[in-house]
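Exercise 3.2. Students should predict the tertiary structure of the chain below and write it as structure tokens, then compare their answer with the key that follows.

Predict this chain's 3D structure.
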Amino acid sequence: MTKNELRVDYKKRRDLLNSTIIEEKSIQIANKVLLLPIWQFSFFHIFLPIQKQKEIDTSPLLSLLQGKDKHVVVPKMKNNQDLTHYLLLDNTIFKTNKWGIPEPQDGIPVDEEKLDVVFIPLLAYDIKGNRVGYGKGFYDCFLSKCKPGVLKVGLSFYEPEQFIDDVDATDIPLDYCITPEAIYKF
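Answer key:
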């Protein structure tokens, strides 16, 4: 299937999820993250979910990272293609943008080069770690600025597709994808 076909299919799948299922599966995903070989690292980038898109609730994962005294970094859209990144603090103020994404209003900026692990939103992915997002290219642009070796961890309610037909040379594959049932390593 093409990326556009997968976007349509997975948005329909998510529409069938209720808040209880999202909460349960999000907790299962956070528990699976505990099994990853990532806990020696310090700087973790995490997305905050778009609730109207029924994305994975990252609050259980966020609590886990904070409980392990990790530096948690959250994104903010800068323009039509870029993200800026801020250290999450107790006093960080969030505002929901026009796409429904909670964003920090200000704070301590963190350069992409400092990041060790990036948790990545996605709609679908394949067995090679290629991901399908919403199609704006924010994360591919962001990941291209990260240091070599940054660990890219997708979070998904679903198992992988066999193949994505139209992977681009600019698409940056995942290192892992975590589902409620499994950990996929690519």
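Discussion points: DSSP finds four helices and eleven strands in the chain. The chain has a mean pLDDT of 96.
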